[in-house]
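Justification of resources, computational component.

The compute hours requested in this renewal are based largely on the per-chain cost of generating structure records like the one below. Each record pairs the submitted sequence with a full structure-token output. That output is archived, and it is also reused by downstream analysis tasks.
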Amino acid sequence: MNLFLDAGRRVVGLALVVLVVVPVFVVLDPAAPPGALDDLMRRSGFEHWTYSWGVTAGVWTLLAVGVAVLAGMFGGGRLSGVLTRIGRAIERPPAWLAAAFIGLLGAGLTAAVALAVYEGRTLVNDASVQLLQARYFTAGELAGPPLSMPEFWSMQFMVQTPAGWVSQYPPAHALWLAAGFRLGGPWVAMAGAMGMLGVFSVLSFERLLPDRVAVARLGALLAVTSPMLLALAGAYMNHATVAAFAALALWLSLRAETGRAVWALAAGAAMGFMVTTRPVSGLLIGAAVTAGVWLTAPRREPGLHRPWLLRRFAWWVLGGLPFAVGFGWFNARFFGSPLTLGYTAATGPSHGLGFHIDPWGRMYGFTQALGYTSTELLSVGRELFGAALPVAALIGLYLLFARRLQRGERILAAWAFLPILASALYWHHDLVFGPRMLGEAVPAWCALLVLAAVGLSRAGRRAWLSDGIAVLVLVSLGYGLAVGGAERVVRLGSRAPLVPEIAEPGPSLVFVHESWQDRIGARLAARPMRLDSVRALINQYSPCRLEGALVGAQRPEEVVDRCRREAAADRLGAMGLTSYLWRGDLPGLGGSGVLWTRDLGPEANARLIEAHPGRTPIFVIPDSASAGHVLPYETGVNALWSGVPP
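The structure output for this chain reads:
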């Protein structure tokens, strides 16, 4: 068994090194059209590869010269002595104090990113939709009521069903955000998640690595200061929530190892929350940090080991059972079957794992899996830490050359690397926040990086080489977190749409002008039509042809006039309804504030205005230099839609 595990970790280490050192991303289609995913990931791969091996080589050469000079001046090994004393100082405070400090740091940094950097805004539709779902939960509803005029609110990732208008995402993260709304805002929930991550990363890593407390605490510190994880949490993304509950589940399973079996009940519940937030990564990481802990537990008394293990697993299953039952009931209510996820209901069976045509109509095969994975691993150092540091390669070298891995290191490796396998089998990839499909594994990556840096520095046969490795990693990480990573977090904030200020007192109906393509997509979805079918039509046919079909135009001149008018309405640009809808009154539930809605032209808008006689209609005109101009309805609609016949 040990030989098998040893061979396996060396294979994984070699794969990490190859995928980072060799430009494997070149297997992606070089003839892919600009903007296609193959094109984006191929160009990103070149950028990160050049950055990692160009900038890194230059910076590390300069630092190596400095280290050599210091070693010559002070004697080989002197720097190692300094680092050893620093490590002892890090180990000195009691565990509860270190956990409290790192937890408060994570919560404070997340609150600062969410409120000061992103100003409470969302960066991507995924978060906006889950915030909308959270608002319905906060109002005491499982979903919005079925929409009577769905074309005014239909959007990606929301599913119109006979039982209600509901998010495609599993409900646990929305429930977490709903708790935040109850306590003052969704930022409270995310600050709480990152605080929890800091506390339980310290406590669980120290139990996993009892003879390397400084390494455990540094790993936890890196996790709560990781620019990518802070950006995900500050933008209300569910990756950070899963990471936090993974740290909690790991601590609970370690407590169950030496304490009462009821700790396993709580570990099962924590894993259940993970699965009902992100099913695939929740299952993989959850199993690694719970069942993986117990299956690798040392057998102090072999005769008692089997019943001990069975009791833990029984309580573990019992803890997760309410989440499994609740998730199945939720899916059956809205999507027709306990095993049908919202993703499938929204986009069809092509949303699943494996190599096939994806919901966008693109082929996802082994070539894409290999190329995308290479690009994502290349980006780890820059995105997770803002550093010119080939993190995956360093960890790969450590796996290759370490004499053996302790049990704690194997569990951390499973937490870090299982999501890579899942991501390779999943068609959706992007680098908006970095390799965000690995976001829930960031704490494990952080701990492994510290382990690798320490292990490789100790493996150096000469003192100056050990000093050099340690200093190079420390300087790179310090600069990355303080400068490069902070810049990336701030730069992401420019993607967050500004929110128009609506000063109109009383109930209002605010029309937001989206692009012609988005308006067509909403009208197709309202028929109703599944998202993969909507995307296929939009990709295959021109907006003008779809417009003609939607309005049933017969004569060519009718189509031309209609298309000219729709295109002219976009002359000032477009906005995104999804970014604003969760902030106001909820469709179908009434209210006395702002109800955001989609502008579909004066004739269609008139029907909605008539259906809401108690609301004052308002128009927001797009403006690339601001959040948009808020105007009286007639002024706004005339500015965009007049001049071209209907």
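The mean pLDDT is 89. The CA atoms of residues 619 and 635 lie 8 Å apart.
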